[in-house]
Amino acid sequence: MACEGCWNKHTWSFDKKNLFLVDELFDEISNTSGIDGVTFTGGEPFIQAKNLMQLAYRIKSELNLTLQIFTGFELKELNKRYQKELLLLADIVVAGRFDSSKPNNNQRVYQFANEKWQFNNTDVEVEIDGRGEVILTGYPTDKLIDNIREAIK
Is residue 134 helix, strand or coil? Predict the structure, then answer.
């Protein structure tokens, strides 16, 4: 998708750097305490829909966790078999290309039937990895983004 202003540009590469088996990722998720759900974000999750569908199925059926997916695709573009199957497993899908000129208003939120999780568009998860890379997932305000940029200078 290569959306302008994306915070996760390091995930765009198709180079095979860190390959994981579905079972390995599932084990890591199942051994993580205190979580209510899992979020698939980008790069672009639906480019690897077959493997993520297998992981999502196990997350839902064995762990009963919620599943949120951020995608740059519109829902109508997701018409391949595994893309459709992955969509059926999601509780919330945030779809559409990111537009940095209106970062909180250009994507559509689809909440599917799951009463235990209500969507909140003020939620933001900030992850800083061992190399100091910052990954934002959710709906950060412009002020939060500016503060993070200032803090990591």
Answer: strand
